[in-house]
Amino acid sequence: MKFKFILLAGLSLILVWGCKPNAPEDETQTNVKVKVPRFEMDSAYAYVAKQLEFGPRVMNSEGHEACKNWLVNKLKSFGAKVTEQHFQAKTYNGLTVNGTNITGSYNPESRTRILLAAHWDSRHIADSPLSTERRDEPILGADDGASGVGVLLEVARQLQQNPISIGVDIVLFDAEDYGESNVEYTTQAEQLAGVMTWALGSQHWAKSFSGTKPIYGILLDMVGAKGAYFPKEEYSRTFAPQLVEKIWSMANSMGYSSFAQVNGGGVTDDHFFVNRSAGIPMVDIINMPPNSANKSFGDHWHTHNDNLDIIDPRTLRAVGQVVLAVLYNENNGDF
Ligand SMILES: [Zn+2]
């Protein structure tokens, strides 16, 4: 994903970073009104580590193909009805990529549905401004990709063990992170063309969407790093303002101060296209630390430091427990 600069939407980009004391994130928090299953952080962490064993999940690579098969089988083993949406797309540098969006559905006939998503591909180059080595080699993407998928696999396991009646669609988008970076845009048309080089899988999914439309969606991207900081991302606030407020206030009531009560900038990520093309209100939970050295994300972003060492299971748990709280409260009509 890429940080949005002011030119695109003309929306003011005011970052108001607050200082908050650390919350007791070591304690498992569940909602008092509804029984919410306990999110197992060690399980989610193991799913992150397993994805990295395939190496970088770069488009058209063997590791990518092997990881896809593992993800499909894993979702099936957790009782989801799994569908694969194959697509081809052209990248900014002229490559034709073969992508697959993977969907694991629970209660596929239910008319009330929630969409959960993350991207499962990893970036083909280490092109952060902070990147100092092997800039033309693919990154492992422990946080950027694997963390969101790891959380959603644990959510899937919980849905199998603790069934609910609403529908849940877990979509693992492909080809999110093959976009063009480090380009200076001078016109809005150029900016838009640049935006369209990202999130190729979700663009395809959103344009071709049919069936029962989820009432809303939650995207997880870079949800595993130590000391993660999740401000309210700008497009999320634009397209799904009430949902943002409900999720962030629930997270804070659960003691997870990593869900910062501050506004963050906009990110060109999968939710942008789901909102825009499929009309499904979707928020992005994404790590955007205050005073970021790359002016957007954590220092490890799009560098080779985005490996397993950066992952803190407690961050995975904060996010996963909040997602479970949303689902089980929604199922109970309390969200
Ligand atoms: Zn990325």
Structure, described:
- This protein has 335 residues and is of the alpha/beta class.
- The protein has a single domain, classed as 3-Layer(aba) Sandwich (Aminopeptidase), CATH 3.40.630.
- It has nine helices and ten strands.
- The strands form three sheets. A six-stranded mixed sheet has the order 2-3-5-4-6-10, sandwiched between helices. Strands 1-9 form a two-stranded antiparallel ribbon. A two-stranded parallel sheet has the order 7-8.
- Strand 2 and strand 3 form a beta hairpin.
- The radius of gyration is 18 Å and the shape is globular.
- It starts with a strand and ends with a helix.
- About 8% of the residues have low confidence.
- The structure holds zinc ion.
